[in-house]
């Protein structure tokens, strides 16, 4: 199982750098992807979208898949 710092997480973080939520979508987390995208879009109107955008990148990079036994 790939963990934090794996190539998949790096790719997801790069995707989220360009479009908030895209990295979560690449990881298969549809609800998180939608939430980050909508929150960033809404907050860009008050110039705070960069906070969610950055959070999206960090979340994608640090995400760890749940262990399945």
Please provide a written account of the structure:
- The chain has 69 residues and is an all-alpha fold.
- The protein starts with 6 loop residues before the first helix and ends in a 7-residue tail after the last helix.
- It is elongated, with a radius of gyration of 12 Å.
- The chain has four helices and no strands.
- The protein has one domain (7-62).
- It has helices spanning 7-18, 22-26, 30-44, 49-62.
- The mean pLDDT is 80.
Structural classification: mainly alpha
Radius of gyration: 12 Å
Oligomeric status: single chain
Apparent shape: elongated
Distance N to C terminus: 12 Å
Series of secondary-structure elements, N-terminal to C-terminal: HHHH
Fraction of residues in helix:
55-70%
- Sheet with the most strands? none
**Which runs of at least 5 residues are low in confidence (pLDDT < 50)?**
none
**Overall mean confidence score, pLDDT:** 80
How many structural domains can be distinguished in the coordinates? 1
Strand tally is 0
Strand fraction band?
under 5%
The helix tally amounts to 4
